[in-house]
Every structure is written in C-alpha cells, then in structure tokens.
Amino acid sequence: MERVARISEIIAASPVGFDDAIKVGFERASRTLRGITGLRVLEQRVSVDHGEIKEYRVRCEVIFVLEG
Fold this sequence. Notes:
Blueprint: E1 5-14, H1 18-32, E2 36-49, E3 52-65
Antiparallel strand pairs: 1-3, 2-3
C-alpha cells in the first residue's frame, strides 16, 4: 500500500509556555486535518512587553497522510 504525506506549517501561541503552545497548535490542526502522524517544532520565540514574557510562540510542521 502506497502512502503519501503532506506537510502544513502552523504558528501557535500560549501565555503559559512552549509545551502548551504546541498542544494548542496540535488541537487546532486536528480539528481540520485528518491523518496527522507527527509534528516538528521548527522555531520557538517569546513575545516580551515591558521586560516580561507575554506569550510563547511555536512554528511547527504538521505531517499528515493524504486519504486516497
């Protein structure tokens, strides 16, 4: 059986932390994409305001298998 996968890039954010931002991104992606087989975190950043971290951001690749 042949399988074809596709990759979509997403950016997700959370005021709690990087782990939570990854979960937020995965939960949102799983509402629209079927067959998700993995996530790859490409980048982590924080948003800073007045010397405090306000938001944790992740840029991820979502890998999913195309239905055929």
